[in-house]
Amino acid sequence: MALVVQKYIGSALVGADRIKQVAERIVASYNAGNDVVVVASAMAGETDRLIAQARTISLAPEGRDYDLLLATGEQVTVGLLGICLTSMGYQARSYLGWQVPITTDAVPARASIKQIDPAGIRDDLRRGSIVIVAGFQGIDSRGNVTTLGRGGADTSAVALAEALGAEVCELYTDVEGVFTADPAVCRDARKIAKISYDEMLELAGLGEKVIQIRALEYAKKYQVDIHIRSAFSDSTGTLVTKEDAYMEGVVVSGVVYDKSEAKIAVIGVPDKPGVAARILTTLADADISVDMIVQNVSQTGLADLTFTVAKSDLHQAYGITGEITRELGAQNLIADEHISKISIVGLGMRNHAGVAARMFTALAFNNINIQMISTSEIKVAVAIDEKYTELAVRVLHDTFGLAA
Amino acid sequence: MALVVQKYIGSALVGADRIKQVAERIVASYNAGNDVVVVASAMAGETDRLIAQARTISLAPEGRDYDLLLATGEQVTVGLLGICLTSMGYQARSYLGWQVPITTDAVPARASIKQIDPAGIRDDLRRGSIVIVAGFQGIDSRGNVTTLGRGGADTSAVALAEALGAEVCELYTDVEGVFTADPAVCRDARKIAKISYDEMLELAGLGEKVIQIRALEYAKKYQVDIHIRSAFSDSTGTLVTKEDAYMEGVVVSGVVYDKSEAKIAVIGVPDKPGVAARILTTLADADISVDMIVQNVSQTGLADLTFTVAKSDLHQAYGITGEITRELGAQNLIADEHISKISIVGLGMRNHAGVAARMFTALAFNNINIQMISTSEIKVAVAIDEKYTELAVRVLHDTFGLAA
């Protein structure tokens, strides 16, 4: 008998059949003797539909009414799940964000959870109810409905698990768990049974879309165990938890790739302080995020600055950079959309020297040229020509012995 | 400068163009110097869509989760209207039922408003905001979201007008107002400028679908002036208000018809006490409403009982009545779907004798046979063969001089 928080992805809640399947799964856990708190997302596509509706009215909809609008998506699934469980003969008690209450700050569309009062939910559980909570939404100190931003239901679930002292926060997704590599690329990719918060944060930042980064940071801070698993099968998924000795022994946990970035190279600018700062500040002012950054100085006293931005920002970033580099008298400006970022992540890198070297050697042996390198304590990422993406992933998966 | 409550019908809120038109109308009233409180319905068809969704999950969805689900319809339009007004540069403040709060009893799907706290709305108006309130919804004493039943936004609007002491409650509908007869049937039907609560209640009970009866009863009780007008034109509509000397001088205000009922006649039952009671009680137990009832006794000591039910209830009502009449040994049981109810309504009937007689004479003169009669203080209704519906309406419209 444990207290379990279960969060369901929107694609598991589209249509009566899937909602009934989710209800069956909830009931199975309840009948196994667990206290169950369910966090519902909006049906897949619903939030986009609401955003599109708002955009027919205003080019840049925002503010409290926008949050009010978006919050209806989860309200619908909460209502339908409640009706379903009740019709199956179970006692279900639903909560919108303000009914819990889940108190947030007042930042519209990207609010942060400040506090959760678990008293009402605890009472319901004590009385034998299954509790259903609307994810993604809360209430600010002035009584406005707020929303937590894309993927916010993950954060709702983790925060509820923490507030209730749940044994585990189960995230029911559309994948079986976290794999050593994309199974579509590596046939022998293996599901990872257990992974640390830090590794998962690196993976989540690098293209694994399975969990929202903010939820992970919250889980790490409060040491909430997360079980990432499939809403469409019964198999065990991946447990995201605190580090243990076993995890530290694994040098590389997984290989990920990301094709969503593009590269801009500024060639031959005078190597004076502040050049990179000026370009990057101007991009930041335009709300363009820069990921990898490399600068090298040639013997002629001219520097090359290379960085990556999201492909969707490339056009704008190229224009901004072009203006500045003309002023600075750069020799050339190159944009390249055909790059891919390949990363290896693993706690064991901290204690095992030469991991990066093994990675570069393996890539070189397969004639894959490395354009940029970026590292953290538990990650090495390289930018390569996009066409070698799948090859590079397979090579590294083999090199670090990740196959099943 | 007045305080005005404006309620918009769902068909005026479908799609960006119509929402913008509604916003223009709100702003026009605001710019004319009025304090404006807007009550929004769900988009036309939205509540049906939500009900259909719930029915894919449960055959008879009900309870707090069902109300939670249905309440999203108005939340969407409130959000969109707020976004629209804000994008036009106006200060708008939106309220869901629980945010006002609009306190109701705890009857799910058909809650009644108990109390409205207007303090927050008054503050907003003082600060120059346009206020938008979600119709159809409230909150019960335990913090559950409740809904007021079909057409409940009318009641929300009237109750808000009363709580705020508004000068008028404007109901923006899809018709130009209340007419002396259906303009589709009588080309010379005239829009009624002013009508009493009691007359409007009779008309609303007789087929005028332009306003919810509960809202009218509320308006009558608290003497709230209602202006029924079109959301799609600028012309003045019909003012529903308390009686005055002029209204009492008008013998007949309007003629209405209703084709939604069917007739059941029980022929030749022993004329003993309790026969009608037994049939009507059994129908009531089956949740079937009976409208007109006529019983006449022949000289043989046998009675005929005739009554009308909604056409949609006819099959079930016929079966129930058949069982009882077999037991009672009735001679015959007849069902007739081809009837129509024609009614004349007018305050002046109280003081003018012979109104019913003029009605019956006019119908007889046109060879329209009267099958049943039912009267109230300010109404005479007859059931006739359905095929004479339009003829009867025109004849009576002429007879009582209602033409423009």
Description:
- The first copy, chain A, is α/β, with parallel strands linked by helices and 404 residues long.
- Chain A folds into 3 domains: 3-174, Carbamate kinase (3-Layer(aba) Sandwich), CATH 3.40.1160; 261-336, Alpha-Beta Plaits (2-Layer Sandwich), CATH 3.30.70; 339-399, VC0802-like (2-Layer Sandwich).
- Chain A is 36% helix and 27% strand.
- In chain A, β19 (370-376) and β20 form a beta hairpin.
- In chain A, α1 (16-31) packs across α4 (72-87).
- The first copy, chain A, is globular and about 75 Å long.
- The mean pLDDT of chain A is 93.
Helix percent band of chain A? 25-40%
The domain tally of chain A reads 3
Q: What oligomeric state do the depicted chains represent?
A: homodimer
Report the sheet-strand fraction of chain A: 25-35%
User: What's the N-to-C terminus distance of chain A?
Assistant: 33 Å
- Average pLDDT level of chain A: 93
**What is the CATH superfamily label of the largest domain in chain A?**
Acetylglutamate kinase-like
Could you tell me the number of beta strands of chain A? 20
Biggest interface pair, residues each? Answer: A-B, 39 and 39 residues
The CATH class label of the largest domain in chain A is: Alpha Beta
Largest beta sheet: strand ordering of chain A: 3-6-2-1-9-11-12-10
Global morphology of chain A = globular
* CATH fold name of the largest domain in chain A: Carbamate kinase
CATH architecture of the largest domain in chain A: 3-Layer(aba) Sandwich
Regions with little confidence, pLDDT below 50 for 5+ residues of chain A: none
Broad structural category of chain A: alpha/beta
